[in-house]
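Technical note accompanying the year-one report. For the benefit of new consortium partners, we illustrate the data format agreed upon in the data management plan: each record pairs a sequence with a structure-token string. No post-processing was applied to the example shown here.
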Amino acid sequence: MSHARARQAIEIKLMAWATARPIRVANFEQEFAALPGETYLQAYQLPGATTCRYLGGDAYEYTGVYQVSITCPAGQALATAEALVDELSALFRVDSELSRNGFEGMVTEPVDQGPTITESATYTVPASFTYRGVADQPPAGA
């Protein structure tokens, strides 16, 4: 399934950037506990429709939205999260390539900051972008 390959292409890029900062990314596949006062990221893929525009059915087109939520401790300046949104905008520029194991795609819409979500001990600033890509359809019976 190429939504999985799209996610992998995005996560490889995101993890390399986060490791270099360093900032941790909470991964639902691993146990994660935020440290006191820590700013961290949570990432989600929101797959869209899969289409086939080709008469022979040779390739499928995959679209979706990828969201990175920046969670900061309450009391930390909003400028911290906004600076991270700017960095994500530079990392995932429109038309930047997303490729992984036969999936060839790109970022199609710029990173967009969503509304701040406040809680008692933290606040979260979501940032998301749209991707689109094509992958060959697996042969029948594969």
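Partners are asked to follow this layout when depositing records. The chain has a mean pLDDT of 91.
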